[in-house]
Specification:
Length: 106
Amino acid sequence: MNDPPTNIRAHQSQQMLEIDWPDGRVDRLGYLGLRGSCPCAGCRDEWTGEPLLDRSSIPLDLKLVGMENIGTYAVKFAWTDGHSSGLFSWETLRRLGDESLAPPKG
Ligand SMILES: [Zn+2]
């Protein structure tokens, strides 16, 4: 179980979310990547984890319209494409951060 971030900032013009973690790490996650990684049942098969969302259907000018804390374990994002059912746990955000820090494959 990860501790909650100490701060989350949305940089709308850069379409980027900046997340400060209690261990000092700062993750910068692009909106399109976040939206494409939406873990909700409509975007991802609950059993296989296979993506159901066509990433090319995500508007390139996607912006965040809202953030809602869900208890102390997750945050829910609402996007300008009308989607707002994605619940990102801290674990999910950390994992996306790990992936964004990892050197590109190939
Ligand atoms: Zn979704």
